[in-house]
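Margin note from the TA: students keep mixing up input and output lines. Inputs are the sequences; the output is the structure of the whole complex. Example:
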Amino acid sequence: MRRVYFDHSATTPVDPAVAEEMYRFMTETYGNPTSLHYFGRQARKAVEEAREKVAAAIGADPKEIIFTSGGTESDNMAIHGVATINRNRGNHIITSAVEHHAVLNTVKALGKQGFTVTILPVDKYGMVSVEDVAAAITDKTVLITIMHANNEMGTIQPIAEIGKLAREKGVLFHTDAVQSFGKIPVNVDALNVDLLSISGHKFYAPKGIGVLYVRKGARWRQTLFHGGAQERLRRAGTENTPGIVALGKAAELAAANREEEAARLSVLRDRLIEGIDSRIGDVLLTGHPEKRLPNLVSVCFKYIEGESMLLSLDMQGIAASSGSACTSGSLEPSHVLLAMGIPHEMAHGSIRLSLGKDNTEADVDYFLEVMPPIVERLRAMSPLDQENEFALSGQCNGCRISHSCQA
Ligand SMILES: *Cc1c(COP(=O)(O)O)cnc(C)c1O
């Protein structure tokens, strides 16, 4: 069967060149970077070279790079580290309604520990307003955390402007750049950020390795792990040398290929959008029409379930993702789509197509050939086209499958 992978926002394959490097650091150069002998020294050298590559890719100093286990850990470490050390200065945190759960659930946890959390709304395109951020800042605000680009609908936030404002007010600013890195420019100075998270498996490095950037002098301290003195006392635990080397290599490749690849992907993205729009009725493209990731399409199909579409697409070899949340059992539509004011019955029918380096125009055309009959068939058997009935029962059919998480 033809297989088309359109789920790069969930995870990407490891680039063969990256995997090759990794293999070498598992089988040959396997020393502990802390060890003083030859094996250790070789591993240390590789870790520090990877750190330089990552730093170069985001315009940072290598000393400002901390390797973590991934995007979730980086987000947790950033937020906890700022909140805890600045607790005597204030207890107010500002975030947005469309954040990834790694941020949203972290600030909510702090909300239960005496912090006050402002969750800013977004407009219909999923965009946070800089004025709203300005209005939310109080003399108790210690942290603003707003993502660079959204993982569900691709909208790019005005990070540089928010960062400028945060700096003027003396408030630390963190951004989750997990989806943006490798697709649009990510430079810590241009974005005016103090802390920034990225994750290897979203740009062709393996799962389980990430980076937290912390600006020199920022009032932040590692507060989650207790252990060894690795990462200059900022992240205890033996360095994941193969992962770090892989991430360094992938970051280097991402930076080198970004512009060209983004241009190629945005052509495919627009071909998808135009094709869906012209061939299928009752659809809603979500996210900002221009300020969006080059590789992501998010669309709601009225009267049908995102998950039924996913299963039908899967049977045709196409891997996509739905906007439904992973709160197993309950079928809550995505918090992101709801925050944008998209009605429940529309949000239920959302799917996300996220493109990557191996996708071609033929993949897009295959999707455009396969999708219309799927939509037609599902709509024909859908109980949801009687909207009133849907509203009355408050639940949908066709979603009796186990739910899978959207990253
Ligand atoms: C995938 C993702 C994360 C989590 O990263 P992991 O490395 O999977 O923990 C965080 N934020 C965003 C926006 C993501 O897309």
